[in-house]
Amino acid sequence: MARGALLAALGLWIHYLAALCTATATTQATVPRSTIETKRDFEGIQSKFSLRTADEPDDDICYLVPGQEDTMARCNFNHTSKTFVVIHGWTVTGMYESWVPKLVDALYKREPDSNVVVVDWLSRAQQHYPVSAAYTKLVGKDVAIFIDWMEEQFNYPLDNLHLLGYSLGAHAAGIAGSLTKTKINRITGLDPAGPNFEYAEATTRLSPDDADFVDVLHTYTRGSPDRSIGIQKPVGHIDIYPNGGGFQPGCNLGEALRLIAEKGLADVDQLVKCSHERSIHLFIDSLLYEDKPSLAYRCNTKETFEKGLCLSCRKNRCNNLGYTVNKVRAKRNSKMYLKTRSQMPYKVFHYQVKVHFFGKVNVTKTNQPFLVSLYGTADESKNIALILPEISTNKTYSSLVYTEINIGDLLMLTLQWEKESIFSWSDWWTSYAFDIQRVRVKAGETQKKMVFCSRDGISHLTKGKEAVVFVKCTAKPNNTDTGDQSRP
User: Fold this and answer.
1) What's the pTM?
2) pLDDT digits (tens, 9 = 90+) for 384-421
3) Which terminal residue of the chain has fewer beta carbons within 10 Å of its beta carbon, N or C?
4) Closest by alpha carbon to 487, among 245, 355, 307, 241?
5) Shortest CA distance to 67 belongs to which of 149, 124, 1, 147?
């Protein structure tokens, strides 16, 4: 029975993926030329606006109806508090997905006096994907009319308004922002949909012009741009790509099956949409774990970030992910990266580790496995796996190391060069080794730069042998072995 339910869920989402892959930008809905400039036709609105409550975050028990002023009082709308407008995406079942009440609940926990409005466009969202994608124009128009009505009829300040759109809902939020008479405060795009929008004009998708501040999380940008489930290009003032944006930790098949075994089939749909939906859960994490904000760093490419070269906070080069993001509006899109855990709380601690390899004999090795252990004032994190794409004699290499543990101030580290496998015959006959004088470390979260020296003056790092130890240098080292590569 469990297997049958799993196969059924997979079948539905295979249909989803097939629809995405065959989607074309040619299918468009026709938006009637009317209403927004002149007297509004509230009768034409098909989207519904449910004001959910902290007590019942999963039920639509009261609707705000544009043109019907009494619904605001009946639903106990708070005119002096923030309002969050949540817009869902495409749906297989025609029903709300499980993340909706989770996000509503988290918003109320962080902002108890706020209004959380869920936009119901389920009837349009369960169509063939290209049709639903085209409907984002009409949904965006509905939301814009609703917002203009709130501002004009009740003098509600749009500085208090925050739109959160997931997948197709992110583009509907962008269109809404482009149509309101007064620019709204903020739009958060949660992995905006890719098919039909990767190459679309800015007016038909989410863009930086749609609000005073637009921040975007990209969590599932795999494949060619026109087939990627999440949009790959930056479409906000700040675009954050957790774990590179392509695939999220904990979203593999084995992990999904483990969760099913532990929790049953209630969340079986996570098997195929885990990375896409991770954008929502990262935002929820930022609401619930106020004391553990995840820090993202500006970088030109994810490859440069993986080398640890972008852990700078100078001139707004780092920012909080999610609710407490600093609203920085640069002249161009700002791409940012970070690592996360596989589950809440998602926060990790980033370090740049920079090593100069000395040797009398020229040796070059590729894809070498190392283990790094960090020992701090508060805790320790042992045997962090690290692969260096290349190491060579008399060269300096920089890499990103991250840990889930807050070790406090770093006091000591060890470095071990692992054997690749027991079947690597060359390792049996040749003993590869390098000399290391010191290791330079930069902590991303604290911005502290530290230098660690070998306790023996020079450490001999030998492949397959024990780890070598580095402690904080007592004297100021010279800079002949390596320069500062911490800038992006």
Assistant:
1) 0.88
2) 999 999 999 999 999 999 999 999 999 999 999 998 76
3) N
4) 307
5) 149
